[in-house]
């Protein structure tokens, strides 16, 4: 999968691409990340990419011409290939696990990293095919957001993690496409490792039992409990079988007792 990142700070990505998953994915050929310096697509000696906004106001706005030229250059490199052009923006649709999964099925895409006060609206209206936000907050630029989009997407590419079940069991994992026992769409269950006792806290006995079916059921129930306590909104999207519905009723009853001070 090929990512073309349009940015005025290509060096921002150097250390990110030399670490961890992104380094492994690019070294193995599962992903290609090409950094495009937006200033290379300007036509003045100062390599100007921004200007003051019409109508006044604080800050500077990215000019449309360099961004259009950058994307046109990418299209010229891939004649006949229709690839998404994504503008990283706090006004875009929220990046979720399902959006990352959607992107992971593409062969290539372009990411536009905004800066300053924003990007000329004509880019969003007439060039970008999508806008993506990584949350309801504002960053100084789209570089961090682009890195998050790439990490979330690339880890879903077949062969990148080595163990495909790993991403199928992640928090927010999409219900479809995974084995029934890992299909949840919930927050992930708690995980423990050695030592079995630490600081007076013991690993739950069921995880030491060797009973795989009981471990599976325990993990599913704990994922359900954690999701209800921290992100109950996710439960509206998750189909529950009869046993899981009973678990949820028990969890709700226990929570009610906790709030009322009952044992």
Task: Report on this structure.
The chain is α/β, with parallel strands linked by helices. The protein folds into two domains: 153 residues, 3-Layer(aba) Sandwich (Alpha/beta knot); 88 residues, Orthogonal Bundle (Trp Operon Repressor, Chain A), CATH 1.10.1270. The chain contains eight helices and ten strands. The strands form three sheets. A five-stranded parallel β-sheet has the order 2-1-6-5-8. Strand 5, helix 3 and strand 6 form a beta-alpha-beta unit. The longest helix has 19 residues. About 3% of the residues have low confidence.
CATH topology of the largest domain: Alpha/beta knot
Number of distinct helices: 8
Q: What is the H/E string? A: EHEEEHEHEEHEHHEEHH
Tell me the overall shape. elongated
Explain briefly what this protein structure is.
The protein is α/β, with parallel strands linked by helices. It has 8 helices and 10 strands.
Secondary structure blueprint with pairings:
Layout (H helix, E strand, L loop, with lengths): L1 E6 L12 H9 L3 E6 L12 E2 L9 E2 L1 H14 L7 E10 L2 H7 L4 E6 L4 E2 L1 H6 L3 E4 L9 H12 L9 H5 L28 E2 L2 E2 L9 H19 L11 H19 L3
Helix pairs in contact: 7-8
What distinguishing features does this structure have?
single chain, 263 residues, alpha/beta, Alpha/beta knot, Trp Operon Repressor, Chain A, five-stranded parallel beta sheet, three-stranded mixed beta sheet, 10 strands, 35% helix, elongated
